[in-house]
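Memo to structure team: turn this sequence into structure tokens by end of day. - J.P.
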Amino acid sequence: MQIARRNILLGMATLPLATVLANPRLSFAAAQSLENVSLTTDGGHSVAAALAVPAKTPAPTILLVHEWWGLNDQIKSVAAELARQGYLALAIELYQGRVTDKPDEARKLIGGVDGAAATDTAGSWLRWLKGHKLASGKSANIGWCFGGGWSLNASLAEPVDATIVYYGNEKKAAGDLTALKGPVLGHFAERDRWINHQMVAGFEAEMKKSGQSLYQPLV
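Reply from structure team:
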């Protein structure tokens, strides 16, 4: 089974990730290359995730947190691409397996997330991933939108070497951010009406107060 998954990855290796993400059939195929894994969290909850294993191990690990749509084939495709690049990539679920492509349903799913349970899930998965037999000892988190906020939350729950945020809602006080043990790379849109300049500037200020490093790519 593992050989078959790797063959799928090898067969798609020449395709740009954007091509895979834009094609539902290719995204589905990439998603099928991942291994379904499960865990009982420290808080006693049964949770699931999808693991992408690189060709060469041990490897640095990266935990992926999905957008407000849930853990869909697109996020799994990104995990597959990260494995192709040499990372042991784990895409976790914070919706207990629910996925949608409708904004109204996505809003309801976000509203139903219990913060304590999600923190328990993210922290437990990080500890599992960092302790994996194929892990090299280096770790990072990445997330988008809803997952961008939870990428940072995961790093506050369980320290990692780096955190990547794509347009996440990061309303944190400096005191909350002192738990970070590595730099944060933030990607924020110029004309987003939700993750706006005011929010990003506030996050930058609180990061600076806490003595943490926030990097933003030039655009």
